[in-house]
Amino acid sequence: MILRAKKQDTEIRFVILPQKTICANNQINKYIAEISKEIKMNTLDFTLELCDPKLFAIQGSHLNSDGYEKLSKMINSDFKTLQK
Fold first, then answer.
1. Element (H, E) at 53
2. For position 76, what pLDDT does the model report?
3. I need a labelling partner for 66 at 20 to 30 A (CA). Which of 6, 7, 8, 83 fits?
4. Could you tell me if residue 84 is inside a domain?
5. At CB < 8 A and 24+ separation, what contacts does 55-61 make?
6. 12 sits in which H/E element
7. Is residue 37 part of a domain?
8. What is the spatial distance between Cα 23 and Cα 26, in angstroms, rounded to a whole number?
């Protein structure tokens, strides 16, 4: 997929979203980073910025509205830097 996108002069950026369990287990993040580097996958890893209990839903392992708002601002900021 990455190679096909490059042939079309398109860039794919993968966003890594943390879950509560990932924030507690840094080994998973290292594993994902190693794979990403190996296959030259362009990732946006906001795990460190989003691993805050206040940004997660009370039930489940997903972000709450504040977490998704912060995530959207970070993605938007990254997108703006690509346009320059």
1. none
2. 92
3. 83
4. no
5. 56/20, 61/19, 61/20, 61/21
6. none
7. yes
8. 6
CB 55 within 8 A of CB 75: no
Q: Which two tokens stand for residue 65?
A: 């509205």
Domains held by the chain: number: 1
Q: What is the per-residue pLDDT across 27-48, written as a single tens digit (0 to 9) for each?
A: 777 788 788 888 778 888 888 8
Q: Output the average pLDDT for the chain.
A: 84
What are the tokens at 57?
């839903």
Does 13 reside within a domain? yes
Start-to-end C-alpha separation, the chain: 25
Q: Please give the DSSP secondary-structure letter assigned to residue 22.
A: H
Residue 14 DSSP label: E
